[in-house]
Amino acid sequence: MKPKPYLSSFFLLLIAFILSLAIGSVFISPAELWKILRGLGDETFTFIIWQIRLPRTVLIALTGAALSGSGAAYQGLFRNPLADPFLIGVASGAGLGAVIAMSIQWPYSFWGLMAIPMSAFIAALLTIFVVYFLARVGRTVPTTNLILAGVAVSSFATSLTSFLMLRSTSEVRRALGWLLGGASQAGWTAILAILPYIVIGLGILLINGHRLNLLQFGDDQAQQLGLNVTRTKTILLIAASLATAAAVAFSGIIGFIGLVVPHVIRLWFGGDYRRLIPLSIIGGASALLVSDVVARIVLAPQEIPVGIITSLVGAPFFLWVLRTAKNQGYW
Amino acid sequence: MLKIQNLSVSYKGHQVLHDVSFDVKHGEVLALIGPNGAGKSTIIRAASGVVPSTGQIRTNGDDFHALDPMQRARYMAVVPQAISLPPAFTVWETVLMGRTPYLGFLGNASSLDEELARQSLSKVNALAFSDRRVGELSGGEAQRVLLARALCQSTPILLLDEPTAHLDLQYQVSLLELIRELAHAENLAVLIALHDLNLAARYADRVALLVGGHLTSIGSPREVLTAEAISHAYCLPVHVVEHPFMDSPLVLPQ
What we know:
The complex is a heterodimer of chains A (331) and B (254). Chain A has 331 residues and is mainly α.
């Protein structure tokens, strides 16, 4: 596994992508997929792939990439192995922002759709700053404070979200399934609406790997080595929140992907952020695609929200990390 | 030359450093001594810009307060105490981070940067373990690596914040020996906060005694380390005798 991290992770992503296109209420074999790709496939299958499976697959892959990439960045920024967009409350905050946008203007138009990630982004930024100021002690952010502040702020945001849903029209109530992490609303328009946020957010994280590395030595040393610490941290927090908000806006709240994937990458390939960020992005896309495939088949023909699968795997993993994080040499 | 004039630092409305002024010449090691809380580390932290201060910190006319962290890091490098280093990085990667103030936007190191990192590692005799992870090193090895990282910054000024505090005796001696040699050989202006008066007496060209945030005396070890001044500063009667084997004073608590 070790020698070629990029090759192996791209290979995994390719397999996950093909699985996600092939598996569903009807099975479409890879041979058939190849035909459809060349425009020679069965008409029904072609429609299913281009209008349903492909947009859903792309949305899920983007979501996994954004959550996992921003999770790795939050961990580096807080120097805390348990920072995850879900656990520190950013995802719930973004969810609240998205629901507020929905209750004002249910997305019929393209611009209506654009308003959702924008509102999610603003709410995510507010959340991250509230959690940060609640959790910090001097210039450090202790693990327990971060998680407790995250849980409290997250519960608050979730309650407001539920309240908004219950008192709103039945259309908003439909968003409940979405909020649990289902991508059934997927369509090419949704992808277009979040793509700029994800590209900009993850792009900024990708070119800042060496700066995240410096921050691992602490703010003082990073500054003495020539890094503008305050500016760097602010830019990276905004970038990570941008990616998280975009992911939450159309895929709902999907927990633990941003915790589990960067951790596994760290165990295998080390904690150098110049490698960790890109590998977490690729790995997050693959992991969420596989989770989504499981969510489609485990109660077939009924689908369950993918957030249930990631939490079932992620929560025990979280507890394991919590118990061992202190004496783990790779962190 | 590093010129510090009227440097003052306040922390939470409480002044911890009062109008301190002194110079550090090139090729000279100046040791800051004094009891805990006297302001030794505060001077290092204020000079390197990680705590806000008033007064002037300058070299060749530039006041460091006006410089951004990257410009400042081209003038002065800081060697912190080697405690809780992140285990993710190798010695090589860590030393290469000393080139940060010269790197472009994407942070890619050139072959010149790598050559300077190699030279710095060789100056501190750490080339042999450049592939090891910094989290796995002994205290003495880790401290040498941080010194190499600071040398790799290619600055005329070197600041060290109690680099020997967590080291065994043999590493304290060899590290300070190395620092003094480098200061003289490479014409560096070296400012070092030191806890141990006798190490300061032996390895510093000049010492500055701080008491309660005030600079009370500065000069050669023999001038500053008098029984009277040290007894007063530490509230403990001491004897100062001639070192039996070295040309330096030796402080002995009564």
